[in-house]
Amino acid sequence: MSRPEADQLLLDAEADVRPTPQGVAARRALLAHPVILMVGIVLASLNMRAALASVSPLVGEISDAFGLSSTATSLVTSVPVLFLGVGAMVAPWLGRRFGTEAVLFCALVLLGIGIVVRVVPSTVALYGGGVLIGVAIALLNVLMPGLIKRDFPDRAASMTSVYTGSMIAGATVVAAASVPLEKAFGGSWEASLAFWSLLAAVAAVAWLPQVLIARGRTGHEVRVEPVVGTAPKSVWRSALAWQVTLFMGLQSLWSYVLIAWMPTIFTDHGMSRSTAGVIFAFNNLIQVAGAFAVPLLAGRMRSQRPLVVLVSSLVAGGYVGLMVAPVSGAWLWSAVLGVGQGGAVGLALTMIVLRAGDAATAARLSGMAQTIGYLLAAVGPLAAGAVYQVTGSWTVPIALMLGVCATALSVGLFAARDRKI
């Protein structure tokens, strides 16, 4: 993939607007402090999966503390994912209305509040904190890539590596540290979860200078003007857009089921919680390989059908492994799933750009795919937990995930054709 093609992988939430001269001046002021901006990006990215990854190794303790059924327990992870889709609906509007820097700062503050609320001894707070966490992460998910594209147009590919690497590193560290932190805090899962609010607080403090520079301290406010031109293309009436969206949603669904239940699958088969947490962290880490390699390959292909077959097969193979030999092959299945998961999300994001005819269409397709995709993905952990509760076994839930893999393969083969919206 050439550098221009690589740079296109970053979708700008402000693609439909152009900055005023005052906005341009403020952004130049921001870039006059690149170290501060870099630190803010890295710290914000560390938070983008941490609050989700911290729950999975402790989900058994959370369930016992509140006396939750498997279905109710699955809502602990499903609710944030559901509100990833809800938050994705409003993120572009908020970015245009109030400025990306201000919204990102508020998202980090909201994330820290949500993490703390989630450990208040109340089921309402447990789920309510998940709502806040989901909305906050959605704002970060949607606005961060556009900010990188806007402020680092000549280094977008390298900055993307920093952004995605930090995001996965955050999830990996948090997943590995959750159980040891619980033990360090005297067996308190609440303290272990609440600890990560400090990471969000540090990121918010690091981001605050960007907000102050962008609004007021330079004498310029970042405002935007609507682009005058032809009527925008409607992605909602495009069959190809729906195919891309469904592939995004189905690959998110199989990943969030693993985020919610992978450690529990291991511990239910006799593995210690500490070991299950480390293997889960390894799964997050190995996703880097797929997320890095698959988009590079996709950009060199007119049709991405071979890659759809590859990532779907890897994920299906990993799920089969969890069904037949969950403990003895745990490290292998974790690696196979990780490559498939990382490759699938990278492929889904790449196809958004490759199927769009222009940047504005890509931004709209990204919003559609993230909104519908996360709403669809939220069904996964809930359904898996409910089926496990009824059957008392992980065999049927995993079999259903194999059906999801087959459906994603079918839809993905259509989405991967060399077509434009």
TrEMBL record:
<feature type="transmembrane region" description="Helical">
    <location>
        <begin position="102"/>
        <end position="120"/>
    </location>
</feature>
<dbReference type="Pfam" id="PF07690">
    <property type="entry name" value="MFS_1"/>
</dbReference>
<feature type="transmembrane region" description="Helical">
    <location>
        <begin position="331"/>
        <end position="354"/>
    </location>
</feature>
<dbReference type="InterPro" id="IPR036259">
    <property type="entry name" value="MFS_trans_sf"/>
</dbReference>
<feature type="transmembrane region" description="Helical">
    <location>
        <begin position="160"/>
        <end position="181"/>
    </location>
</feature>
<protein>
    <submittedName>
        <fullName>CynX/NimT family MFS transporter</fullName>
    </submittedName>
</protein>
<dbReference type="InterPro" id="IPR011701">
    <property type="entry name" value="MFS"/>
</dbReference>
<feature type="domain" description="Major facilitator superfamily (MFS) profile">
    <location>
        <begin position="33"/>
        <end position="420"/>
    </location>
</feature>
<feature type="transmembrane region" description="Helical">
    <location>
        <begin position="366"/>
        <end position="388"/>
    </location>
</feature>
<feature type="transmembrane region" description="Helical">
    <location>
        <begin position="30"/>
        <end position="52"/>
    </location>
</feature>
<feature type="transmembrane region" description="Helical">
    <location>
        <begin position="240"/>
        <end position="262"/>
    </location>
</feature>
<feature type="transmembrane region" description="Helical">
    <location>
        <begin position="126"/>
        <end position="148"/>
    </location>
</feature>
<dbReference type="InterPro" id="IPR052524">
    <property type="entry name" value="MFS_Cyanate_Porter"/>
</dbReference>
<keyword id="KW-0472">Membrane</keyword>
<feature type="transmembrane region" description="Helical">
    <location>
        <begin position="274"/>
        <end position="298"/>
    </location>
</feature>
<feature type="transmembrane region" description="Helical">
    <location>
        <begin position="307"/>
        <end position="325"/>
    </location>
</feature>
<keyword id="KW-1133">Transmembrane helix</keyword>
<feature type="transmembrane region" description="Helical">
    <location>
        <begin position="72"/>
        <end position="95"/>
    </location>
</feature>
<dbReference type="InterPro" id="IPR020846">
    <property type="entry name" value="MFS_dom"/>
</dbReference>
<feature type="transmembrane region" description="Helical">
    <location>
        <begin position="193"/>
        <end position="213"/>
    </location>
</feature>
<keyword id="KW-0812">Transmembrane</keyword>
<feature type="transmembrane region" description="Helical">
    <location>
        <begin position="394"/>
        <end position="416"/>
    </location>
</feature>
